[in-house]
Amino acid sequence: MLKNGVFRRLWCTQTLSSVGDEIRNWAILFWIFAEADQAVFYRTALLFAQMLPVFIMAPLAGTWVDRRDPKKVLQATLVIRALMSFVLAGLIWFEQVPLLLVMLAFTCTVQQFFQPAISKLTVTAVDHEDYGTASSSVKTIDTLISLAGPAIGAFVYQWWGASTSLVADGFCFILGSLCILNLKARRTPLADLSDPAPATSFWMDVLEGFRYILSSPLTKRLFIMLSVMGVCTGAINLLNIYFVVNELHLDQNYLAWASTAGGIGMFGGALGLNLLGARFKNYIHINIWGAGVMTVGLLLLTLSFGSWSMLLSRVVIGIGISLLSITLSTLLMTYVPEHLLGRVGSVFEGGPLATNMVSYVFFGWLYLYTGARLIFGISFMLFCMAFLLALSLQSLISPSRRVHAEQQEFIGHS
User: Are 218 and 330 spatial neighbours (Cβ–Cβ below 8 Å)?
Assistant: First the structure.
């Protein structure tokens, strides 16, 4: 895929953006954890600052990208995020925690325009039959960054401090914007000028993304399954650091090792699917395997009583995450009409994060009375329900033909 010049430049931009995000996230996490004396409230506030903009802005951002030139949107998001990284570095220097969280929320709001824009550009850059390979190529490098990110972030934080980490984050976004400065991508028309129907309003376009998801059995079941999984991943994101430090009685550096173990699993899953993707074209079956692998990994995490079992569980969970994320992006690029891809993909991103936030509030409260292990056990039972939803996808007879027919029917009624 990297022989394709346009995709190669998009791939480099995605890579630099992911590197910057890893450095920023780990620097802020370590700094907040130390500054707030390990208070669950501030950890919850940090997660809300990162996730609330996704819930609010994702459908709006996707619709905006569908109505604009995705290259210009992508360029603008990178420049603004670079400037905001320097602002965050200054706020850390002056130890302004509340204002830091506000500015981080703004940065994450701008970030919501990045993925829909780069997804639309990817669709125009590669052939239809290469969507799966393109998705797995991006996921493979993302998992490599997940492997190196915790180590790099922890190293920079410990030796030079959080502010320096945020400065490095800003330069990553600047380099990413330079990669697409003269990008020559095939331009898709924003609207069919021969269509006599009047142009729809912005808010009608937003609702159209939701309507499409509900009109297709495939997208509807996937959306419900991912939303249920969002509750479980929310519990892991919120309480993993407390599970490692307070219940397994390990040094907080093991949190970085746990993330590295997850990155190893994600890399293994992405690389395996990248190499064997030509043999396994049924991405619905791969999606089911991903849900099953994550269920096993969450059970192992719940039963962990030492560092090795905890790290192994994160490897297994990482494999499942790769399988699920690659198949999801491939299914959306394959079956969702291009003019709806931005808003539908954004809704798929925002829905699970909405359940993430619900789990932050509920499990953050429940943790005060129970503990992380019991909450992980509850999450495992919820994941079993999500796995059953994944299995129900098999009831779709000839999924590609049925979804294609439903697409045509949906477009015909629009």
Answer: no
Q: Distance between CA atoms of 50 and 47, rounded to whole angstroms?
A: 5
Show Cβ contacts of residue 46 under 8 Å, excluding neighbours closer than 6 positions: 28, 29, 32, 101, 104
Tokens 């997850």 correspond to: 262
> Which residues are CB-contacts of 199 (< 8 A; sequence separation ≥ 6)?
191
Are the C-beta atoms of residues 17 and 78 closer than 8 Å to each other? yes
Q: Which residue has the higher pLDDT, 69 or 136?
A: 69
Are 47 and 235 spatial neighbours (Cβ–Cβ below 8 Å)? no
**Beta-carbon count within 10 A of 7 CB:** 22
Average pLDDT, the chain: 79
pTM for this model (two decimals):
0.63
Dist CA 139 CA 273 (whole Å): 10
pLDDT at 258: 84
Virtual torsion, Cα 86, 92, 98, 102, nearest 10 deg: 20
pLDDT tens digits, 372-406: 899 999 999 988 988 988 888 777 645 444 545 45
